[in-house]
Structures are given as C-alpha cells and as structure tokens.
UniProtKB/TrEMBL annotation, chain A:
<comment type="similarity">
    <text>Belongs to the nitrile hydratase subunit alpha family.</text>
</comment>
<feature type="binding site">
    <location>
        <position position="110"/>
    </location>
    <ligand>
        <name>Fe(3+)</name>
    </ligand>
</feature>
<keyword id="KW-0408">Iron</keyword>
<dbReference type="InterPro" id="IPR018141">
    <property type="entry name" value="Nitrile_hydratase_asu"/>
</dbReference>
<protein>
    <recommendedName>
        <fullName>nitrile hydratase</fullName>
        <ecNumber>4.2.1.84</ecNumber>
    </recommendedName>
</protein>
<keyword id="KW-0479">Metal-binding</keyword>
<dbReference type="GO" id="GO:0018822">
    <property type="term" value="F:nitrile hydratase activity"/>
</dbReference>
<keyword id="KW-0456">Lyase</keyword>
<feature type="domain" description="Nitrile hydratase alpha/Thiocyanate hydrolase gamma">
    <location>
        <begin position="15"/>
        <end position="196"/>
    </location>
</feature>
<feature type="binding site">
    <location>
        <position position="112"/>
    </location>
    <ligand>
        <name>Fe(3+)</name>
    </ligand>
</feature>
<dbReference type="InterPro" id="IPR004232">
    <property type="entry name" value="CN_Hdrtase_a/SCN_Hdrlase_g"/>
</dbReference>
<dbReference type="InterPro" id="IPR023900">
    <property type="entry name" value="CN_Hdrtase_asu/SCN_Hdrlase_gsu"/>
</dbReference>
<dbReference type="Pfam" id="PF02979">
    <property type="entry name" value="NHase_alpha"/>
</dbReference>
<feature type="binding site">
    <location>
        <position position="111"/>
    </location>
    <ligand>
        <name>Fe(3+)</name>
    </ligand>
</feature>
<dbReference type="GO" id="GO:0046914">
    <property type="term" value="F:transition metal ion binding"/>
</dbReference>
<feature type="binding site">
    <location>
        <position position="107"/>
    </location>
    <ligand>
        <name>Fe(3+)</name>
    </ligand>
</feature>
<dbReference type="InterPro" id="IPR036648">
    <property type="entry name" value="CN_Hdrase_a/SCN_Hdrase_g_sf"/>
</dbReference>
Amino acid sequence: MTGHDHSHEHSELGEMDLRVRALESVLTQKGYIDPAALDVLIDTYQTRIGPRNGARVVARAWVDSVFHDWLLRDATAAIASLGYTGRQGEHMVAVENTAEQHHMVVCTLCSCYPWPVLGLPPTWYKSAPYRSRAVKDPRGVLADFGTVLPESTRIRVWDSTAEVRYLVIPQRPEGTEGMSEEELAALVTRDSMIGTRRVEAASTGGAS
Amino acid sequence: MSYVTHADLGGQPGFGPVTPEPEGELFHAAWEPRALALTLAMGATGSWNIDASRAVRETLPNYRDLSYYQVWLGALEQLMLQRGQVFPDEIATGEMRHPAEPVARVLQAGNVPAVLAKGSPTERAAPGPARFAVGQAVRMHIGKADHHTRLPGYVQGKRGTIEHVHGAHVFADAHAQGQGEQPQWLYTVVFDEAELWGNAAPRQNLSVSVDAWESYLEPAA
C-alpha cells in the first residue's frame, strides 16, 4: 500500500498548491496584486530580512556601550540606526539577559514577532506547544531546546499581546573578549534572541 | 455570544513538547511562501486592517487542525469573500468570473522595500492623561468578549503591576470590528507566577507580562 500512501501525499500537497495558484491567478486577473511584488516579498524574507539583522544589533550592543544603553532606552530608534525598521517592528523593546535574569518572548494569541530583526517566525514559535507552555512552564520549554538555567535565575516571559515587539539581547559568552563585532554577530543565533537558547562561544550562529 | 476564538492558547494543557528547527528553515512546502506573499500583498491594498485579519484567522472553525499558512490562506479567502473581492467559483477555478472591486492601492514590486520599511505604526496622540502609573497595582478584566480581543484568558481577573507605559495605541478590539482606531493608553503589566498558576504549580522563579490597553484594567486594592 506504499504506492497508495505516496500518491495520497502528493495529491494533498498538490491540493494546497493548486488552491494558492488559483487564488494568485484570480487576484492578478482582477488587478489586486502585482505578481512581481510577490517574488520581491518572498526574496526579501528569504535573503534580506532575517535573524542576521538581529545578530548585528546584539553584537553592536555587546561592543558599544553607548549603543547598548540606547538600545535598552529606545530600541526602535537604536535598531533603526542600523537600517532595520518597519513591518512588525514598528515599536521595539530590547530586554537583556544576565546571569540573574533570563528573558523569553512568546505570542500566546497568534504569532507576533519582530520581523525587521528576526525575519519570519520559525514554525515552533507559532505552534500550540510553544504558545501554550511558554507562559506556564518556560523551564520545560527551555529543556526542549536543551537549555537549562540555574533555579536562582529569574525568568521573565513577555507575551506580545499588542503591537510592541521584543528582542532579547543574549548574554555575551565568556572567552569572546578578543572577537570582532562581525565575529560576535556570527555567534548570535535566532533562538538566543527569542530567549529559548543561550549563545555559546563555540556556536556557529546562522550556519547551524 | 457568537464569537469564538480558537487561538487563546496561553497556559492550555495537552499540546506536548516544542520541536526546535534550524534557523534557515522558513517554509515546508512550495505553496507556503506564495500564501505568505499573497497575504502581505492583499494586506497592502488597505481592504482590511491587521486586527480584522487576526479576528478572521482565530475564528476559522478548524483553526487547530490547520497549519500556520493554511490558517493565513483560509483567512485571506474569507476576508476577500466577505468583501465581494472574490467569489467561490473564482477560488475553485482560478478564473475571474465577476468584476473586480476597486482597491485603494496595489503593491507594486518596486514599492515593496519602502512599504515594508515603513510598516504600520500604531502609536497615536493620547486621548487624555494616562489612568495608571508605573508601579500601580491593577486587576485585569474578566469575562469572555463577544469580539476579537487581545486580553488572553490566562490573565483575566488576575492582579498585576504596571511596569511600563507605552503611550496611546490603536485599540485592537475596536479596530478589528471596523469601529475605527479609538486609541487608548497601552501598558506592560507584569504578573507573579503564583497569581497566574496558583501556589500548587511547580515554582519556576517566573514572572509573565502582557501588553494591555487601558480598558482591560481596573485599579486593584
């Protein structure tokens, strides 16, 4: 019956494909959309707006104390100074992880996420397990990521219920004192800026 | 009471573990980026606002059985059907069979970077002085809303503390219902874990905050 299962999977995939294609075709015929704009939108979030932006913000905050303080005081302006603005990041707040205080961000009601600095949210961020458990059992959620924090570390979970978007500044790992801003940015992972992982000195950042 | 949201998940049991995924993995089927782009492009026509689209998404009857982009696509079809912008026979066939409804704007490829960079800020002139100040104790409203709201069930009736005043922002509840922006003061309200989950719940050394519009709040003793 393997053959049957395969064709079933294909026809299901095909169904969504056809449905989206049909809608795109109608909307184009009706003049509501410019199909070329769809390509630009997709390319933007696949290649230009993603977590490398946020990593640059974090690395700058790690090496530049004036920027660091500005970021904590007025994240929208500080982040805009690096060229990251707009859709789903209009009102930014940055929160800083320390040995005493760990921050984690969720949207229990939908999938609110700081797009200009992190791009599109990962599937797990939008999933029912994360949205349901982050506010009640964050240590359990962290364990799903292999992250274990000391009991003495206070955890703060930010539920993004309005149009304010949160960026976590992870702790700068020890042993990175000699690294350049660019090298530091390469260490910073997406998950560390949501608050589900810490940054490791040996991490390979975006290449992971 | 007819409004039922399926999206208010905070604190709900039974959803199992979180499955992490690598950073570059954004889509899981070829149609997903197209569905995303269609949603963004139609959103840019100004035919509805983001709160209205969230309301349609969270009330899709099969919300919890759908994948994320299936929710987006289903809601997009609904929003357009409601406005007579498309019809069922057009969705089924992919052919235009009814005249187009005029839209305020069409997002052209060349304008995409500027439109994304501009976004849609929600801060507005304050309607009056803020009712609450940082450090003040507040209690969250309780009771099911018969419309879209951004007040999650798990904080309703709970006592929290004002931590930050964000200025006045477009009020999502009114905006979603087509009642205009009705800006209100927006606050970050922080709660202790025992207040939210009781003393019997395993201690996490946890506090949780939500962002709440002023009408969600009452002064607490």
